[in-house]
Amino acid sequence: MTVQLRPIQPEDLDQFFEHQQDPEANLMAAFTARNPADRGVFDHHWNLILKDPSVIVRTIEHEGEVAGSILLFENEEVPEISFWTARRFWGKGITTSAVDTFLAEYTARPLRARVPQDNIGSIKVLERRGFKVIDEDSDFSNARAAVVKEFIMELV
User: Fold this and answer.
1) How is 45-96 classified by DSSP, letter by letter?
2) How far apart are CA 1 and CA 42, in angstroms?
3) Concatenated DSSP letters of 93-121
4) I want to staple 68 with a disulfide (CB 3.0 to 4.6 A). Which of 7, 50, 85, 119 is the partner?
5) CA nearest neighbour of 110 among 136, 135, 78, 76
């Protein structure tokens, strides 16, 4: 399997936007844009990410295709990792490989992640990398139009 992380290229954003149109992926991610089809909001969001020097962001590429993104951002006192993989790449080890590669590049600890409690795939990826549940939280999910419980996980 060929998975690599590389800097974001402008054309990657078109693929990320396409990935965001998948209703099932939005439900699993839970904390998404109110209207995933609004390209203006999407572009504004990514513009903020790409202009923030404290954010580390990479494109996940699998066999030459854009499979998703992975990023690290400062959230209060502990940096957080976040990732999105297009649904057609789920269950193939691509996200796991991307997280492994990212964690090898970014070695500072502790590191946190937030994941909806029913997102078993992402929880497994994080647990297998050594993340442990340290707390729980809940917030309103636009994708689900409901309050969703999430785990706060940490890698030390």
Assistant:
1) HHHHHHH-TT-EEEEEEETTEEEEEEEEEEETTEEEEEEEE-GGGTTTTHHH
2) 30
3) THHHHHHHHHHHH---S-EEEEEETT-HH
4) 85
5) 78
22: DSSP letter: -
d(CA 41, CA 2): 32
pLDDT of 119 strictly over 70: yes
Total number of domains in the chain: 1
The amino acid at residue 66 is V
CB 85 within 8 A of CB 106: no
Beta-bridged to residue 72, according to DSSP, are: 56, 81
Please tell me the pTM assigned to this model.
0.92
Q: Are 17 and 71 in contact (CB under 8 A)?
A: no
The pLDDT tens digits for 26-56 are 888 888 888 889 999 999 999 999 999 999 9
User: pLDDT grade, residue 112 (50/70/90)?
Assistant: very high
Domain of 126: which CATH number? Answer: 3.40.630.30
The mean predicted confidence, pLDDT, of the chain is 94
Range(s) of the domain holding residue 141: 3-155
pLDDT, position 105: 94
